[in-house]
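Convert to structure. Protein one:
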Amino acid sequence: MRSNDGIMNILIEARKRKGISINELASLTGVAKSSISRYENRSRQFPLDQIDTFSKALGLDPKEVLGFNDDSNISLVKSIIRIPIIGEIACGDPITAQENISGYVEESTENLPSGELFYLKAKGNSMEPTVPNGSNVLIREQPEVEDGEIAAVLVNGDTEATLKRVKHQGNIIILIPDNQEYNPYIITADNPAKILGKAIRFTTDL
């Protein structure tokens, strides 16, 4: 399989050879012009799950673009999906709205749970040592979690997502940090919050 740079070289050469502008390619693929520009100047990695879309738009064989000679290898690429990483949260927007996304992680579907998924970057050390500061935490969207499970919860007027263990107690929900130096966060009718999903696992960069 070709490197990401090698793939982009072929796509760029084909676009220019056919006289297709970036604006036209954006229209053909349904991908934003700004994203295509970033792919071409290498400021953002080209997503492999878009190979079929770009190849079709440029009249190319996706297997040849990838450097594969048989269908067994191309099927591996089709099993890769892009999971958004949520950065800052715009008030009122759905959690995975484009305005909230700071990047993507490409993963094989074989290693993922079912459901809608996103990554949330852990900020601070309230969940240490369980979840290190700065790690990317995989979240499966669901409105409820069991007691003791770690959840991503939208707080502070729907502008901040926090990771905490959840405990139900009567009519209130208590968000409990693993770091005992931090105080629990109490959810009530007067101090509302919204559970976004269950934390599945985390990854960190070495």
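Protein two, convert as well:
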Amino acid sequence: MNRIITLLLLIIAARVHAQVRTDTFSFSFEGKRLSGLLDLPGNKPPGGLVILVPGSGKTNIAAESWSGLRRCFAEQGFVCLVWDKAGCGKSEGVFDNQQPVQNSAGEVVAAITEAKARHMAGSEKIGLWGISRAGWICPLVIEQIPIAFWISVSGTDDKETFGYLLEKNFLIEGRSEAQTKMLMSEWRRGIEIARTGGTFEENLKATENLRNDPFYKYMSNNGVPTKEGFLNWQKQIQAGETVIDSETDLTIYVRDFDKLLSKINCPVLAISGEKDSQVDQQKTIALYRKTIGKNPASSLTVKMLPDCNHSMFKCKTGGYREDLATWQPCTGYYNAISSWLKEKGFAN
């Protein structure tokens, strides 16, 4: 009997998957043609359009890691749109790992503008799904254009997250509390030297142990900084292009971020993993609870998933270099999204 039920469920799932149609989509941004994929539900008129906003690094939207999420939204009756960053996939241009979040927000707005200009199905009701770095991008988009909902995954507070990533992963990789404290002290001292006008040679001397640590080497060009890179970064700090918080020595990505979040005017679902070793989710959720919902048109729902890493995959340690034999979505991840969309009346 159980085998029959399982077979029926597989048949039903296959029929649902077959009803999802995938097309290509492209739009122009700053003179480049960015290319993506558009998943359309074929069994009924779409309930809206969901834009997927990726985190840091290069993209490959055709990869299996994206397909489950795309299918999750399409099966809930949404048109789902995602594109590769410049220089990735079939998108024109050169990938820029230093692309400002404000510029990335402009890219999302350009895609939405194109979708509306084409009268794309579902474009009268647009939602955002964004992971990690998109925690800065999505609020900037919401400030510029009407958005129906925002799903924030492994979101951020106002400051950069590399310090948390380093400290958490030093401990995961076996450094003692004392060793970790020393390494983080050197990391902060290096930033302080740059911020206060110190020299490249001073920076090298102050960060010798840090630069020789295996994990730091893995994360930072084998631990070998260049004088040109140091001076360029210092110049950006002195010019105000890069804003450093003097108390924490962390880069502030969006000024007055708390005020921006307080103005959010749509429902927000915040999902994160308990073993996120890249972003301090306790700080992010505390900030969200303090700000989102001040606008009466907004509300906040929080879902924290166990045994779940920053990328929303099942894990043991959550470490940056953890070898995941199978890239399985966290238990309850897709269900949390679909249930919330139904609860808020966005999906049937």
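The radius of gyration is 21 Å. Residues 1-18 have pLDDT under 50 and may be disordered.
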